[in-house]
Amino acid sequence: MKNIYTYCLLALLPLLAASCGQREVTDDMADSVKLQLLDINIERDPDNPELLAARARVLLNLQRLQEANYDITRALKENPENLEYLLLKSDISFANGNIEESYRTLEDAERLYSDNQEVQLKLGEITFYSRDYDRSLRYLSNVTERDGNNRTALFMKGFIYKEKGDTASAVQLFRRVCDKFPDYSPAFEQLGVLYASVNNPMAVEYLTTALNLDPSNTNTMYALALYYQDRQDFEQAESLYHQILDINSNSADAWHNLGYMELFYYKDYPRAIEYFTKAIESNSQYIEAYANRGCAYELNGETTKARADFENALSINATYQPALEGLKRIK
Fold first, then answer.
1. 234 exposed, middle or buried (CB, 10 Å; 0-12, 13-18, 19+)?
2. Rounded to whole angstroms, how far apart are CA atoms 296 and 276?
3. For labelling, which of 122, 130, 220, 262 has a CA lying 20 to 30 Å from the CA of 272?
4. How far apart are CA 270 and CA 297, in angstroms?
5. Residue 24's pLDDT is what?
6. Domain that holds residue 154
7. DSSP string across 278-310
8. How buried is 78 (Cβ within 10 angstroms: 0-12 exposed, 13-18 middle, 19+ buried)?
9. Given 152, 167, 182, which residue is the final one in a domain?
10. Contact 173, 150 (CB under 8 A)
């Protein structure tokens, strides 16, 4: 009965639209229902830019990007200076992988609305993802000068300073985000990573806080596990690597690092080989796993297999020094 009822309801939609005029599309509707209503309304009023833009947004949500681009282009033809349409056009182009067109659209928006914060933020974001950090900083600074508590702009600026090697500025900005937004786990994670890089035990506090806020974040788990591993707290590191594998059994890095500890600290070569093999199965181009498995085979007396792994590593990078040194040792 349910399927028949649904079919009948959908069949009635065109009749309802014809008898009552345009049906209003509301936010609580499913995208599929929105699309059906918008199709009906646009058939009745094909050049209405508001309807075209609304359908473009739904199509973007449904990842029907070519259709979304067609609709928003038509909407902009009717109203070329509409900020909402320009921003949506940029989003659709970005989702479609056309970064240059997305950026050009935002530049058009900036010429018309130079003081608009959303335009500046989107320009900062797109140049950030393009790794044009100097330009991104200029846009993001335009945002933070007007709104010193804009979380996205502050976080991105902190990440850019981290990438540029200005650790002090990065820490200052990430701390500011943590203070203003204590439930935002990425800022705590980044602070933890920065403190870990300078061997500061505060790394544990920030990474643990990030994990408490987002318990399934394997990137945070990995950063904390690596911190423990580097300080030879292998029990803690192993526990975290296994937690990662419980979530993602194909985590090549987790398998590799478990193998690394077995090889260099526990001297359990068969188990190291097992873990490195898992890493290679997860990532066939994992050059460190090939070289380290070669070392494990070498120390386990399996010279032929060791040679094959060193050669596999060199097939990925012919100048990879650990593999070259491994071949020298066993010849």
1. middle
2. 9
3. 220
4. 8
5. 82
6. 115-167
7. HHHHH-TT-HHHHHHHHHHHHHTT-HHHHHHHH
8. middle
9. 167
10. no
Q: How big, in percent rounded to 5, are the helix, strand and coil portions of the chain?
A: 80, 0, 20
Are residues 122 and 82 part of one domain?
no
In this prediction, residue 240 carries a pLDDT of 98
Measured in Å, how far apart are the chain's first and last C-alpha atoms?
76
- Claim to verify: residue 64 and residue 151 sit in the same structural domain: no
Q: Please report the pLDDT score of residue 22 as a whole number.
A: 56
For residue 271 the two structure tokens come to 């188990």
Whole-angstrom distance, CA of residue 226 vs CA of residue 285: 21
Residue 157 to residue 205: CA distance in whole angstroms: 23
The list of the chain residues with pLDDT below 70 reads 1-23
Is the CB of residue 160 less than 8 Å from the CB of residue 179? Answer: no
Domain end position, chosen among 167, 185, 206: 167
Could you report the per-residue pLDDT of 14-33, keeping only the tens digit for each? Answer: 444 444 455 688 888 899 99
- Please tell me the total number of residues recorded for the chain in this structure: 331
Tokens of 204: 């544990």
Question: Could you tell me if 5 and 99 lie in one domain?
Answer: yes
Residue 45: DSSP 8-state:
S
Assess whether 60 and 156 both reside in one domain.
no
Is position 211 within any domain?
no
Nearest to 73 by CA among 95, 53, 101: 53
pLDDT at 175: 97
Residues 26 and 83 occupy one common structural domain: yes
CATH of the domain at 94: 1.25.40.10
Cβ partners under 8 Å of residue 99, min gap 6:
93, 126, 129, 130
Two structure tokens written together for 82 = 């509409």
Residue type, 82: N
CB atoms within 10 A of CB 301: 9
